[in-house]
Amino acid sequence: DAGITQSPRHKVTETGTPVTLRCHQTENHRYMYWYRQDPGHGLRLIHYSYGVKDTDKGEVSDGYSVSRSKTEDFLLTLESATSSQTSVYFCAIKTPSSYEQYFGPGTRLTVT
Amino acid sequence: AQSVAQPEDQVNVAEGNPLTVKCTYSVSGNPYLFWYVQYPNRGLQFLLKYITGDNLVKGSYGFEAEFNKSQTSFHLKKPSALVSDSALYFCAVREDNYGQNFVFGPGTRLSVLP
């Protein structure tokens, strides 16, 4: 998985609680992305980062925030989780010399 | 705005037969096109890409794809399917000068029957 780890791999939480998902890469690549995967929708971009403290919104950013204080870590936070945020979340990186993305193993989040 | 369509939710093919998974796209500028495969409970794995040049691109595991600009398509193909090719396949597009936005299709589930 291209040196990308995600934690936790599975999480069950209650509506209204804050949740933070972590993506860690070992290669210090500049670009990092958070997606959610839902049946019938493929992958949808939540936020991405193009450097430390440099982030931008994607297609489905409402209800999510991100932070990148170190090159290797990209955090996704659900400030107050809702059942509609039940999904599988994938982190991805893009190397400077490639056009394609490489994905982490995913985090399955269930909001009850 | 960019968009990707995969018109078939499911494709069934017999082992040994050729397979095609369809993808059409819409972008304003020049497209960068990608195929990814996802096995159960795994992340997406990169298969191949079209950036420029030859319209027929070859990738991992014997897969290839043909870029057709006039039909705005990028269909994934393999001459002889294997049972182990059964998985979920995603087409993605990025417009060459449109930042870092990759847009993914909804996915096509390929089942190769023994």
Give the SSE string of chain B: EEEEEEEEEEEE
| Low-pLDDT ranges of chain A | none
Q: How many DSSP-defined strands of chain B?
A: 12
Average pLDDT level of chain A = 93
Radius of gyration of chain B: 14 Å
In percent, how helical is the residue content of chain B? under 10%
Give the SSE order of chain A as H and E letters.
EEEEEEEEEEE
Short synopsis of the structure:
The complex is a heterodimer of chains A (112) and B (114). Chain A contains no helices and 11 strands.
Task: Give structural notes.
The complex is a heterodimer of chains A (112) and B (114). Chain A is built from no helices and eleven strands. Chain A is mostly beta strands and 112 residues long. Chain A is globular. Chain B is mostly beta strands. In chain B, the strands form three sheets. In chain B, strands 2, 5, 6, 10, 11 and 12 form a six-stranded mixed β-sheet that branches. Chain B has a four-stranded antiparallel β-sheet with strand order 3-9-8-7, with no helix packed on it. In chain B, strand 10 (87-95) and strand 11 form a beta hairpin. The chains are: A mainly beta (112), B mainly beta (114). The A-B interface holds A 1, 4, 31, 33, 35, 40-45, 48, 50, 56, 58, 90, 92, 94, 99-106 and B 4, 32, 34, 36, 41-46, 49, 51, 90, 92, 94, 99-107.
